[in-house]
Amino acid sequence: MSIEINNESDIPVDEVALQRLAAFALDTMHVHADADLAILLVDEGAMEQLHVQWMDEPGPTDVLSFPMDELRPGTEDAETPAGLLGDIVLCPQVAQGQAETAGHSTLDELLLLTAHGILHLLGFDHAEPDEEKEMFGIQRDILIGFAMQERRRAR
């Protein structure tokens, strides 16, 4: 699995943790080992430009997802085909503010946003209540499973 992370923001980020979470999420969703994912971290100005260009909404946002090959989750018996999953763009400054409001670390917020972005790349959405329930449930399960894996790894 190729997970490329590029931090163009001025905020230091634990890129190794983001990469481990992304790998865990992709494995959980039965994405082919030869799938490619790129994660880009940008400042508020760059994120605002992307937000306006692609979503026609003002101001910076926390995460944007740009799917490429429209891969969907696999199953234990049949993982997704190999391909380009797509790009996730994160804004650490926006994540930092959200983390303070939520009462957790900026890294925890970036991990949540990475999981969220990956699910969008896999075709999940949260526009309708039933979609939101499904997507956020999977997102929660990924984050809990990852936290448990990290605790075991730290022992």
TrEMBL record:
Q: Where in the cell is it found?
A: Cytoplasm
Gene3D superfamilies from the xrefs? Answer: Metalloproteases ('zincins'), catalytic domain
Q: Does the keyword Transit peptide apply?
A: no
Instruction: List, alphabetically, the SUPFAM superfamilies matched.
Output: Metalloproteases ('zincins'), catalytic domain (SSF55486)
The protein's required cofactors: Zn(2+)
- Which residues take part in binding Zn(2+)? H116, H120, H126
**Which keywords appear in this protein's UniProt record, sorted alphabetically?**
Cytoplasm, Endonuclease, Hydrolase, Metal-binding, Nuclease, Ribosome biogenesis, rRNA processing, Zinc
What does this chain do?
Answer: Single strand-specific metallo-endoribonuclease involved in late-stage 70S ribosome quality control and in maturation of the 3' terminus of the 16S rRNA.
Q: Which family does it belong to?
A: Belongs to the endoribonuclease YbeY family.
- Per its record, how is this protein called by name? Endoribonuclease YbeY
What organism does the record attribute this protein to? Cryobacterium glucosi
